[in-house]
Write a structure and sequence with these properties.
Layout: E1 7-8, E2 13-14, E3 19-20, E4 25-26, E5 30-32, E6 37-38, E7 43-44, E8 48-50, E9 55-56, E10 61-64, E11 77-80, E12 85-86, E13 91-93, E14 102-105, E15 110-111, E16 116-117, E17 122-123, E18 128-129, E19 134-135, E20 140-141, E21 146-147, E22 152-153, E23 158-159, E24 164-165, E25 179-183, E26 186-191, H1 193-198, H2 203-217, H3 223-230, H4 238-245, H5 261-270
Length: 271
């Protein structure tokens, strides 16, 4: 059902069984797949391609250009998969030429109220972002990562698959797959055991990931040596291979555990 009060550009393409609420605007260059629901007061701008069965709630702005100073009006795009939910006030910006020109969101994601996804972000499948969580430009997020409310990720960082970012956390380094981080700035606090258990990972796999976490974070090894140690079990567990691959990162490095007060005292006493 298309409400008569909606404004839909003649060049926009709407699939079958699409509903659009009152006072929503769908601009030129927008493609909306079958079975999508667009609520009231929604803004869709193109070039944007939206897959099937997405739900976009009121006051969301999807496909606007980026406010980045380097953007100069070049034609860029936003690609969105299937079965995503964009709750109230979500904002998603198109890419910019300097970042590849494409912002991309996978399928089966949930973006709660006032989530922001900036230009050139690449967001995987099954990602959940709670209220007011924000991604700056060029952030890469793996499948099934989970963000608590008000979590923030600056530009160019990477968040691995199945990672969990606790609420109110600031991510200054890359987050490996399967790892839970918390704090401002955040630190690693363990494997996201509960999250992956909900994804039907076996207890055997969870135990293997916990052991892998200990190798990287608790044995005092150099990162390269820890990754080499993990290679002994990657053939047995594909999850360990994913974890190991996510440790090889760019200049930002990986999130580390917070040093305990005892560690600090020992360092001071030995200095």
């Amino acid at each position: 059902m298309l409400d008569s009060r909606a404004i839909i550009d003649s060049s926009a393409e709407l699939g079958k069984n699409v509903s659009v609420g009152p006072w929503s605007t769908i601009g030129p260059g927008v493609v909306v797949g079958d079975d999508c629901h667009i609520g009231s007061h929604v803004i869709l701008k193109g070039p944007t391609q939206i897959g099937r069965a997405n739900k976009i709630y009121q006051f969301s702005s999807i496909g606007e250009d980026t406010p980045a100073i380097a953007y100069d009006g070049e034609p860029t795009s936003l690609l969105i998969g299937d079965n995503n939910i964009f709750r109230e006030g979500v904002t998603v910006h198109r890419g910019m030429v300097q970042g590849g020109g494409i912002t991309k969101i996978g399928s089966d994601c949930l973006f709660m109220a006032y989530v922001h996804i900036a230009h050139d972000c690449l967001v995987g499948n099954g990602v959940i972002m709670a209220n007011n969580a924000s991604l700056s430009g060029h952030v890469v997020v793996g499948d099934y990562a989970n963000f608590g409310g008000y979590a923030a990720v600056p530009q160019y960082r990477q968040v691995g698959a199945y990672a969990h970012i606790a609420g109110l956390s600031l991510v200054l380094k890359n987050v490996p797959a399967f790892v839970t981080v918390a704090g401002n700035p955040c630190s690693a606090i363990g494997i996201n055991a509960e999250g992956i258990r909900r994804r039907d990972f076996s207890e055997k796999v969870i135990e293997a990931l916990n052991n892998a976490y200990k190798i990287v974070y608790l044995r005092g090894l150099l990162l390269a040596d820890a990754v080499q140690e993990l290679q002994k079990v990657v053939d047995e567990y594909s999850e360990i291979a994913l974890f190991a691959d996510s440790l090889i990162t760019d200049k930002y490095g990986i999130v580390r555990p917070r040093k305990s007060s005892d560690d600090t005292k020992d360092k001071e006493n030995n200095s």
